[in-house]
Amino acid sequence: MFEQQDPNLIQLNSAGQLKHFLTTEGLSREMLTEILDTADSFVDMSAQQVKKVPLLRGKTVVNLFFEASTRTASTFELAAKRLSADVLNLNIKTSSTSKGETLKDTLMTMEAMHSDMFVVRHSDSGAAHYIASNVTPHVAVINAGDGRHAHPTQAMLDMLTIRQHKGAFEPLTVAIVGDILHSRVARSQIHALRTLGAKEIRVIAPTTLLPRHIEALGVTVYTDMLQGLKDVDVVMMLRLQKERMQSALLPSESEFYNLYGLTEEKLKLTHPDSIVMHPGPINRGVEIETSVADGPKSMILKQVTNGIAVRMAVMSMAMGGQMTEHQAERGSE
Amino acid sequence: MFEQQDPNLIQLNSAGQLKHFLTTEGLSREMLTEILDTADSFVDMSAQQVKKVPLLRGKTVVNLFFEASTRTASTFELAAKRLSADVLNLNIKTSSTSKGETLKDTLMTMEAMHSDMFVVRHSDSGAAHYIASNVTPHVAVINAGDGRHAHPTQAMLDMLTIRQHKGAFEPLTVAIVGDILHSRVARSQIHALRTLGAKEIRVIAPTTLLPRHIEALGVTVYTDMLQGLKDVDVVMMLRLQKERMQSALLPSESEFYNLYGLTEEKLKLTHPDSIVMHPGPINRGVEIETSVADGPKSMILKQVTNGIAVRMAVMSMAMGGQMTEHQAERGSE
Amino acid sequence: MFEQQDPNLIQLNSAGQLKHFLTTEGLSREMLTEILDTADSFVDMSAQQVKKVPLLRGKTVVNLFFEASTRTASTFELAAKRLSADVLNLNIKTSSTSKGETLKDTLMTMEAMHSDMFVVRHSDSGAAHYIASNVTPHVAVINAGDGRHAHPTQAMLDMLTIRQHKGAFEPLTVAIVGDILHSRVARSQIHALRTLGAKEIRVIAPTTLLPRHIEALGVTVYTDMLQGLKDVDVVMMLRLQKERMQSALLPSESEFYNLYGLTEEKLKLTHPDSIVMHPGPINRGVEIETSVADGPKSMILKQVTNGIAVRMAVMSMAMGGQMTEHQAERGSE
């Protein structure tokens, strides 16, 4: 665990532009909307014959994955390459950097190679903040998931998917279902949905998988999924970490599916125009019925497509914010 | 194992152009010749100072290797990069995708990232066909070897090497020597040689390493290498999978070498202008005598060079065929 | 171990230009100065918005690391990408190439793929020479560290760092401290410092970590660090291989630190304007006190930055030398 600072002191430059992307918490509605608008333009570009723009040409992006995640690493690698960046993939086992000093040396070495951006996935909450604020402030840091804290690009690709299908956030009732307690995705989603003005945010989970004082985030808590899904416009399923199954926190896989799996039957309780989302990879028959995952309400593959666009958006915006700041610093010397 | 469809229904678009490259079986002589002609132009390009063409610029090629093969993966990676594509390497252990559904989800996720081409190596025969026909028909699929079924780019680089040295296929007698039973390369070679009009195709192997009914493919079978090599123009050695040695199918390594290894002595039985080929990596002193591998008849390194050119050819042709089809589909909407 | 030839017969073309970069030994002062001048121009380029030049566009650089080294491999990968080369990373376990013939086949295969440059790291002294002279003379070979023999790009980035801070080499007294016996870096540094005209080169180490006849290289030997550091302008620390600790060659870690670790206290013995260097990664509290590593005399991160520039310099120079030679060969045909 790392100590925290006000994220906006860190992730915005003096002109109020994004220079790191660490969390959705504390970012203004205007900033989240700018990210979504920029991402939309990259969605359009992806339909072109040549899916490549020179925005990060000659820049070096380092994928620093202290925790393995082929899928997330691939989307960031693709996003960086489509922005024409040079990409370096480093898979660093947490063990070899167990001492804070050694991690710091590794990062300062990467910075000294004139890296421009670090994409950081780490099992410790706050790792990306720590790096951005204490270690290499002149390198744009993109949080690709830190402990139980945040996974802001996942949350923003979800927001993009909702906006494409629902237009405005104000009239929406959104339900987040599953292991809220261990989910960095849920935290980032709640912050983004509140800022973007969603009418009601529900979390649906067994008591054992709910963080204490979760109501303080402005959500309504349901332990009964049948009640929680009633008339919702958006169902956001969370991925179930199978390793949690062995602990006492969770009932058996089949019991969990009965109570909190998204089935065709339960889906009938939602609004007729509702959509279903899941961050993937999905556990068919555990969190979600196969026919729901592949059905007309499912946005799962759309989310993947939007994931590239959102990552291109925050990468190009953060790089722009860093460059503006460097120029300002040079000008004031 | 996956069920099979007529390959030409899958690998050609409605205009008869290549849109996947799954097998040499069923492709017309004109199509095989077009592949060889295109490859020849890339051989010329490789002699230039700048070995790079923008044919796949802005396209995303994903190397999906469910079975490890550094050598084949490297040639495809190089071919894609010389075509200016963005390349993503994914090494997927078959174990993690043992359920068909999970493999399907992985592939559909990669497709949703706007991947344009999958290069697929898989231990199951028919895997590439299955993906191209059932999973992601809009992504160009290149078969980089599937089970015992096919290894069509290897066969085509062999054809390119033969044509460069012999000109026409019609007058040629070609011998394929070794473990025919387990070889995906042999199957692809036989289909290509027949279509291109080779006069006679001989297979030389011990009875235990011959598939049943192999004669139905239009080949002459020899179990005696001394008879089989007589006056042949081309000797195509197969790689011996050492792991087969332990099984009862094979005699000892030295006995195999005595009977089916290509030595200087045996080579004297072939036509004076004969050439020798091997897909590599070679087991010196097991399938082939060192002086033969390094001798003037050996085309082994030439095959490697041609391998890049053939892969560039089928990748650019299949991408062109996909794009033509997409435009046709849009036009008819 | 591989047999050695006069390195200059190998690493220079007939016009006297660099065509491989294998060792600093035997290279002229003019050549070393040209490398430093070229590297300086790349240092300037790295401060630009777009850190990319097209000098190696369309060229294929293969990273052949027979010995793992994430850090060195990363710097070469970045250097090659900033020169616009296509890069292929191959991690080859020494075990699979234990037979010389097999290594040779691997390399000739890579050459046949029209590779233009091999970056070679190998545990055997002389491996890079062997490849350049016997295996693939038309591929530019860059030595990224071979056994105990040489690590010439490390030595040249050290020379660049010294020149940036001290200007001329002639007035300098330089101390190299630590495990001289096992260090390929020390050998390369000594050759470069002598050729560039440093006034005095001292090596400081316990008797057990000094090669026999080291004085023949033109250095002064100190076993007492307090005496050896007196008035030196440059302190070059070596990395301590922790695995050596277990052998009888080394005292305990704390005893080594007491005798040969660089502390603030010992640093006071050096010239007031002295600088401190270390090839990294550093073992804080083993070879160097943390406050020294992070202090104003420390050049450690500067060395990392210069490492990219020096690698870009030798890569672009060796490629130029190869191309000149190829053209000369073609002209004389």
TrEMBL record, chains A, B, C:
Question: Where L-aspartate is bound, by residue?
Answer: 99, 184, 239
Ranges of residues in domain Aspartate/ornithine carbamoyltransferase Asp/Orn-binding: 172-317
Pfam families to which the protein is assigned, alphabetical: OTCace, OTCace_N
- Which residue numbers delimit the Aspartate/ornithine carbamoyltransferase carbamoyl-P binding domain? 19-164
Q: What is its EC number?
A: 2.1.3.2
Q: In which pathway does it act?
A: Pyrimidine metabolism; UMP biosynthesis via de novo pathway; (S)-dihydroorotate from bicarbonate: step 2/3
Q: Name one GO molecular function term.
A: aspartate carbamoyltransferase activity
Enumerate the Gene3D superfamilies for this protein.
Aspartate/ornithine carbamoyltransferase
Asked if the keyword Transferase belongs to this entry, the reply reads: yes
The role this protein plays is: Catalyzes the condensation of carbamoyl phosphate and aspartate to form carbamoyl aspartate and inorganic phosphate, the committed step in the de novo pyrimidine nucleotide biosynthesis pathway.
Q: How does it assemble?
A: Heterododecamer (2C3:3R2) of six catalytic PyrB chains organized as two trimers (C3), and six regulatory PyrI chains organized as three dimers (R2).
Name by which UniProt lists this protein: Aspartate carbamoyltransferase
Starting at the broadest rank, the lineage of the source organism is: Bacteria, Pseudomonadati, Pseudomonadota, Gammaproteobacteria, Oceanospirillales
